[in-house]
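Materials and Methods. Structural model of Zinc transport system permease protein. The 264-residue sequence of Zinc transport system permease protein from Allisonella histaminiformans was retrieved and submitted for structure prediction as follows.
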Amino acid sequence: MLDYTFMQHALLISICIAILCPCIGIFLVLKRYSMIGDTLAHASLAGVTLGLFFGASPIVSAFIFTSVAGVSIEFLRQYFRKYTDLILAIVLSVSVGIAITLITSGVLHANASAYLFGSILTVSNVDLAVTAALSLAAVATFIIFYHQLIYLAYDETAARIAGVHVKTINYIFSILVAAAIAISIRSVGMLVISSLIALPVASALQLRKGFKATFIASVGYSFFAILSGLVISYYAGAAPGGITALVAAGALLVTMLFTHSRNR
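The predicted structure was written out as tokens:
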């Protein structure tokens, strides 16, 4: 299977996604912001269509537009403190409106549907280079702000008292989420990216371990889901994104059953 160049590219991108998604997913889940991942995934589709329209790299344009959307969510939180779901609805509406308008108007010179369902087996050298660059930048940012992010994940008020620049870190984290989504959209598709952000973390949380153990376990679940999806899709001839989501959901179900039986 790995004798083919496209499968080698697919494996490399899968490794990047398997590490990156739990990095941002664990903080989104702990902050009760899981739906932000889904909102920004839809925003990335608008970025893709804008990139195709202007002849730019869809991954780069998705990263830029999703970063703007993530920063906008943080900015709007200052005005709608009690209505976070309303902010997500606003960003989602604008993003989907842009994407649908461009897709249905006939002005695009390429097919955007591959970004809906994922097409990991058609990743080009340029896609691989951009993905690697964004992955390295995102992981470096995660390492640098690791302790501040842990503070924010549990209590923003306590983090502010401890001297953490809460607003700045939140903006940086929004861009980190945007990078993870932009990297993943070509491979697993916009419709299932939120599953890779949330499901491995949800599975790891069932083990009821400490933060580091939960993070390592979520990376393990992510690797299992993505690599299994890649292998199964190769032989089944189906889109890897959908199979990956099903494997991740199945792993969550098995973990829940295991922990339930162990607790009994």
